[in-house]
Amino acid sequence: MTVRLTQASAPLMHSIDVRDEFGATRRIAIPAERALTVFVDKRELVTLMTLGAAPELLVLGYLRNQRLVERADDIDSITVDWDVQAAAVTTRAGIERFDEKTAKRVVTTGCGQGTVFGDLMDDLDRIALPPAYGPPVQSVAPPPAGDVVATGEYLARIGHCMDCHTPRTTDGRLLMEQLGAGGMQFPGPWGVSVARNLTPHDSGLKGWSDAEIARAIRTGVGRDGSTLKPPMGFAYYRNIGDADMAALVAYLRSLKPQPFAGRN
User: Fold this and answer.
1) In a 3-state reduction of DSSP, which class is residue 27?
2) E strand or H helix at 60, and its extent?
3) What percent of the chain has a predicted confidence (pLDDT) above 70?
4) For 199, which of 25, 90, 109, 204 could close a Cys bridge (C-beta 3.0–4.6 Å)?
5) Would you say 188 and 230 are in contact if contact means Cβ atoms under 8 Å apart?
6) What does each C-alpha distance from 171 to 62, 129, 160, 177, 185 come to in angstroms?
7) pLDDT at position 109
8) What is d(CA 220, CA 214) in angstroms, rounded to the nearest whole number?
9) Which residue has the higher pLDDT, 171 or 147?
């Protein structure tokens, strides 16, 4: 069954006039955060703060992750009306034990998204990591002094580079024998990003210069001048120093050449 949704997306930014440090008036754009009060079958539940890109999906996801509904099919419609800053949710058969589920709430932040209903927080305390994760990490040894490749590997590990740029098994584990081969897909408002092959293979970085690799990491500009897409965090990498960048590049050069996504 299909959930009927309005398409009430709102502008993500709005313009305001500000006075800068020199006393000049300038017009800038700031995030347009809005309050959205959620009503379920005409009963007020919570007020969420949102930029308004996809408010109907925000409400649907909130109800699902709070375990107030088991499936999207439980909902008939979600109607968002910005004139009254409200989202009206109509379920197909009501929410079983609604009063019981919403009687207890834990507020973890000032925003409604931080409101947790029922015993969900207690359940989190009972989650145990699989034994395969190994014992807790007590400390991380620094790389040997003067070993540029080891330093680059250390930086790539703490930056989680290979978590995105390595293919995974169907149950989510990294295929370490295909380290850095890329191919993972990341859908989002920007479309679909595909992780690049970081190994020195023809389908990877073999033809890239060190400067081109550094530019892509720091500024999000590819070898051909194209703009890289999220979730690549180049805005956070722009201040990587030259020595650390050289170490990262050296490490990438040291990887075993792999065909894109490990495909032969």
Assistant:
1) strand
2) helix 55-65
3) 91
4) 204
5) yes
6) 25, 15, 19, 16, 15
7) 66
8) 9
9) 147
State whether 107 and 77 are in the same domain. Answer: yes
CATH label of the domain that carries residue 48: 3.10.20.10
Same domain, 72 and 153: no
Over the range 2-20, which residues count as b (16 or more CB within 10 Å of their CB) and which as e? ebebeebebeeeeeeeeee
> 128 lies in a domain?
no
Q: Is the pLDDT of residue 146 over 80?
A: yes
In sequence order, the 6+-apart residues with CB closer than 8 A to the CB of 68 are 40, 95, 98, 101, 102, 117
Looking at the structure of the chain, the number of domains it has is 2
pLDDT value, residue 241: 94
State which of 123, 158, 179 marks the end of a domain: 123
| Mean pLDDT calculated for residue range 217-224 | 92
